[in-house]
Design goal:
Elements lengths: L3 E13 H4 L8 E13 L2 E5 L5 H7 L12 H6 L10 E3 L18 E5 H8 L35 E5 L3 E4 L2 E5 L8 E5 L7 E3 L7 H6 L9 H17 L3 E3 L19
Parallel strand pairs: 3-4, 4-5, 5-6, 10-11
Antiparallel strand pairs: 1-2, 2-3, 7-8, 8-9, 9-10
Length: 263
């Protein structure tokens, strides 16, 4: 079985330009895409990030989020004949609310994340609290932090905390890219008939981030964030891989979306 990669359209959000590209052109609003990555592999179905929950965003910032039923995780998976119960693993780049909104639907999946990221989500610093506002997939984490490896809620059956670079399955590798958050991961997938694909997550929002040398305005460590953006470029060169950016409004129209796929 050849590995396939599906990009699941999750809708769009809006931010000030300076939040997408730190310190650049404040005052201009920019709408940007949000999507998830489904890796169909002989060892399972791996979902990298799950987009946002529109209800959460409407409560925080009414009118910002644009999302149809087909752009939710259940709706997007239905386009390719799947349901959330078919997902075996959720791989979260990080736990900001625009990357975890669909986690709660994947009730049969093991959730793989960086140990530092789960700790940050369970006990965020005050300036990070808004970013970690959606804990619907694991509400128990805010109630008790004695054992972050075991979940007792109905949503996430098990967390698997990892550190360092990790090959999750053959050809499916998580690379540490901290800075945006303490435990941020980016994903590389090797395919049989094309160059490897590197999904940057929020370590690099867009090609323009590289062109400007600008990390996002949301970060816990700007130096680490800049080094991670450089690391992604180095990884792309080392593996002859193509970078796929998390929130690139210019690149998004050219990406193949589900039910189409890469293989």
């Amino acid at each position: 079985m050849d590995t396939k990669v599906y990009l699941l359209d999750g809708g769009s959000l809006e931010l000030d330009h300076s939040q997408l590209f730190w310190g650049r052109s404040p005052g201009r609003r920019v709408r940007f895409p949000v999507y998830s990555v489904l890796v169909e592999h002989k060892d399972g179905r791996f979902l990298f990030d799950t987009g946002f929950n529109k209800e959460v965003f409407d409560a925080l910032n009414p009118g910002n989020a644009q999302q149809t039923d087909a752009q939710t995780i259940p709706g997007a998976l239905a386009l390719i004949g799947l349901a959330p119960r078919d997902i075996t693993h959720v791989l979260n780049s990080h736990y900001h609310l625009d990357h975890v909104g669909g986690n709660k639907f994947c009730t049969c999946a093991t959730t793989v994340c960086h140990k530092l990221e789960l700790e940050a989500a369970a006990n965020p610093e005050p300036f990070e609290a808004r970013g970690y506002a959606d804990m619907s997939f694991a509400p128990h984490l805010r109630r008790t932090r004695t054992d972050l490896g075991a979940a007792d809620d109905i949503y996430t059956p098990r967390f698997e905390c990892v550190t360092g670079d990790q090959e999750i399955a053959k050809g499916v590798t998580l690379f540490e890219t901290p800075g945006h958050t303490p435990g941020h991961y980016s994903l590389m997938v090797r395919l049989a008939h094309r160059r490897p694909m590197i999904f940057t997550g929020d370590a690099c929002y867009a090609q323009r981030s590289i062109d400007l040398g600008a990390i996002s305005g949301s970060h816990v460590d700007p130096r680490a964030g800049y080094r991670s953006m450089q690391r992604l470029q180095d990884l792309a060169q080392e593996h002859d891989a193509e970078l796929f950016f998390s929130h690139d409004g210019d690149a998004w129209p050219n990406y193949v979306k589900a039910p189409g796929y890469y293989c």
